[in-house]
Each structure stands twice: as C-alpha cells, then as structure tokens.
Specification:
- The chain is α+β, with helices and mostly antiparallel strands.
- It has one domain (about 40-270): mRNA triphosphatase Cet1-like (mRNA Triphosphatase Cet1, Chain A), CATH 3.20.100.10.
- The protein is built from four helices and ten strands; from the N terminus they run αβββαβββββββαα.
- An eight-stranded antiparallel β-barrel has the order 1-7-6-5-4-8-9-10, surrounded by four helices.
- α1 packs across α4 and α3 packs across α4.
- The radius of gyration is 20 Å and the shape is globular.
- It starts with 17 loop residues before the first helix and ends in a 6-residue tail after the last helix.
- It is found in: Nucleus.
- Belongs to the fungal TPase family.
C-alpha cells in the first residue's frame, strides 16, 4: 500500500512558519526603527552560536520545551558566545570539508563557498562622549598594520534561541556600526582575531579564535557567527516588505533572505557538538 499525493492542508496552502516570521518581524522592526542620528551607520545582522546559561550561574539554561524555541526578552539568562576548543576544531573541519565539496559537480548548492584567512587586531578606546558607554574600535590588519576600520558599535536588539536537543543555542543580534575618527590616547585593551571566513551567497560565516588582552591578562575565546553580507540589500528588501506598490517578488524578498539566514544558523547549531 502506498501513500497517495496529499494536499499541503485542507486549504491547499502551507501554514506560515511562525518561527521565521517572528525572526523576520524582529529584524525588520529593529532596523526600520534604528536611530536616525546615525545616517552613516552600517546595519549588522548576525547570529552567534553559543550557549544560554542561567543568569548568575554556569549551568545551561533549562526550560520545559522539547524543541528549538525563541525566548521572550524578559527570560532571565545570559548568552555565552565562547565555544570549547574541541567545538572550534569540529567546525573548522566541517567548514573546510564543505569548502572542498561545494566546488565539486553535483553539490546541493550551485554556489561554492569562498574562503579567506584573516589576522586582525582590534584596539578599544573610550567613547568621545563621557556619557556614552559605546567604545570605539580600531581594526588593523595584523600583517601590514593598516587600519581597516574605525567605528563604534551600537547595540539595537537581541533575540535568543534555545535549542534543548542540540549542543548549542544561538542569538540573533542587530547592531549599528558607525564610522568615527581615529581616537587619541591609548587603547583600553586589545584583541587579536585569527579568523577563518567563509562566504556563501548572501552570508558570511566567521570562525574566530580571539585572544584578548586587558590589564596584563590574556583570555582565548572561540566564536562562530553567521552574518548577512550586504547591509544595503537587507535595507532595500526591508523597505519593500509589505509595500502594496511592489511586486510579490519584491515584497517577499526580505522574508526569503531571513529564511535563508535562519537556515544557515540552524544548520550550524544542528551540526554542533556538546559543549561539555
């Protein structure tokens, strides 16, 4: 006995994915309501892979849910973006293998991954305003010493995603990167970034070992994040979302971009190893 063809539903359509819509609504609202006093600011949307922990403790967050869940902003927890070294090694091998297979005939995606290995140094300075807590970051190429960018990052909003069946959780962050002049004086602290950067279509996946130096102390962190590569595309599609004068393709482009963004974050989380 075989299963006959089935309709998507009794209405013949597939119900809207509430998870994707919630993420898309959050990002759309946050970027469209961004502070107007920073017209040169670049919108950054990224998903960091990490672990949600109890606030004030080291235990991983526990909630009475079985599957991936978006948390309300008032849920008491903290997000730890640092991975264990073995997780970093695991993702390094996974992404390198994907880089090789993506360029071979018959790969699931027609677009191969592009790869670059970056060595960067960030120096952090106090804000130009004594009332502001935003720090100024100067990023240099470690090999040449050339300044790549000088900016301050303004945090606009976060959305935490709890994944109880996986070895990692994730956080979506929306920020504004505002270019500023190079600050005077000495840096408060520095961090060195050994970054493996993989680009696929409209997304960048960064696997980074961060060595932070502050007050004579050294700390090594391992981070993994997915970022939307072109802020100008993000804003252009966001502006057309829900526009009755735009075509259906233009109106749905933003949600399609966010759907692929979420899928990339999910794929990484579902291929993570337990943090231990």
């Amino acid at each position: 006995m075989s299963l006959p063809p089935l309709s998507l539903s009794i209405l013949g359509v597939e119900p809207l994915d509430e998870f994707i819509k919630e993420v898309a609504d959050f990002i759309h609202h946050t970027i469209m309501k961004r502070p107007p006093e920073y017209p040169t600011g670049k919108v950054e949307v990224e998903a960091k892979i990490g672990v949600l922990r109890e606030r004030g403790g080291n235990n991983r967050l526990f909630l009475p849910v079985l599957v991936e869940t978006i948390l309300r902003p008032d849920v008491e927890c903290r997000f730890e973006s640092n991975m264990q070294p073995q997780q970093h090694k695991h993702f390094n091998g996974l992404l390198n293998k994907l880089k090789i297979t993506s360029s071979q005939p018959g790969y699931a995606s027609s677009t191969p991954l592009e790869y670059s290995h970056l060595y960067l140094v960030d120096s952090f300075y106090p804000s130009e305003s004594s009332e502001s807590r935003d720090r100024i970051r100067v990023t240099r190429d470690e090999k040449t010493g050339n300044v790549i960018e000088t900016m301050k990052k303004i945090r606009l909003g976060d959305l935490n995603v709890y994944s109880p069946q996986r070895g990692a959780d994730w956080r979506i962050s929306v920020n504004l990167e505002v270019p500023v002049q190079h600050p005077l004086g000495s840096a408060m602290h520095t961090r060195r970034k050994d970054r493996l950067s993989y680009t696929h279509e409209e997304f960048i996946i960064d696997l980074t070992q961060v060595t932070s130096t502050a007050g004579g102390n050294h700390e090594v962190l391992h981070e993994l994040e997915v970022e939307i590569a072109r802020p100008e595309l993000l804003l252009a599609t966001a502006a057309k979302r829900g526009d009755p004068n735009a075509s259906e393709h233009e109106r749905s482009a933003f949600d399609e971009l966010i759907r692929a963004f979420v899928n990339n974050a999910r794929i990484l989380v579902r291929n993570s190893e337990p943090s231990g």
